[in-house]
Amino acid sequence: MGRSTVAERNRHHNLGTVLSFEFIRTVTKRRFWIGTLSVPLIIAVVFGLIFLSNTSTDSAAAAQSSAQFSISYTDASGLITPADAALFGATAADSPDAGIAAVQSGTVEAFFDYPAQPESTAVRVYGADRGLFENGKYAAVAQALLTHAVEQRIGSQQLSALAAGRVQIETVTYDGTEESGGLGSVIPPLAFLVIFYGLIVLLAGQMLNSTLEEKENRVTEMILTTLKPTTLIAGKVIALFGIGLVQMLVFLSPIVIARLFFPEELSLAALDLPPLVLDPVRMTVGLLILVGGFALFTTTLVAIGAVMPTAKEAGNFLGVMMALIFVPFYAVALVVSDPHSVIVQIFTFFPFSAPVTALLRNGFGSLSLPEAGIVIVILFAGAAVMLRLAVRLFQYGSISYTSKVNVRTALRAGPRHPAADEPTTTPPTAAR
User: What is the pTM of this model?
Assistant: First the structure.
């Protein structure tokens, strides 16, 4: 009884040792923080540029519509009165040819030629070249002059707004008796898809190399004399989950900082987004799919690392795994428009395309609860199978330093443990 208790205590101690070693070894590397911090930094820069661009665009549009420059015009429609033209500093030209000649000679900066039917015929605008961006002021002022003239003729701001189509329309949709959230209910679940991509892209190399480093350093036989392969692989996988959690928190840091220090500039109203709706069911499903998908890809890449002798050879398989998570995006239009088509169903339930496809469908509300349950079971069961496979492959291939492990042979054969299979000799590193 006492011996069993001591063995169990040692097992937990060894797992904690592997977990802390793998986690601390990774998070203390400079390249880990360079890669991790680059994501929120890029996000912050992009949002900052978008905000500055929107602000400058709005300012430029307002400046162009109120720009002051000399104008002549002709109006075959009869909509523009002398009073309307005087408000904009425009004077009538004798003819279109005279107006164009005045611009060419520099007498005036711009000439507007309003046709008899401006609702169906283009208004011709001629101006002195002031550069690609500043030339936009001519069309803006020509439009503002015509709009003002039409409003004066209608005599009602309300009718003018209706005639110009400046009407705000709010759409409310119902799912049964419950009001659906529209776009506001789509954005939060899709955040899990963004997090999934970020974690896989940044951690794929770490997942693949987690078992390769010891093999390339020729120390696996020494490690396995004191650790069970299951303990070693499980510790590495759990450590990768902890590293992923750290990166997830770092990814979310720009949003938290922005909400704390720039609430007005980065509010949903400023971004022209609807209020966010957090559906607890869809958020829970999204979280479970994220965790299950991350677990499946982690254990799969760890298993690939256990098979390959070097990181260079393993890199070819990494490209295939990365391609699998981008394949569903080739059919994203079909995923959104026809989620029950055969190809979308295959993508939904095939383990390595399931995370992305299911997260997309969950975000857009086309993933039913039974389908979500099946996908979650597939992902977690697949992760468990791949973890067991990774342990078996690592047992068999732990000292295969120069050749790739034959998967079929490894599965048929019993485990190769260095402590049991090999005689006690000087470690290879010392022998060399």
Answer: 0.60
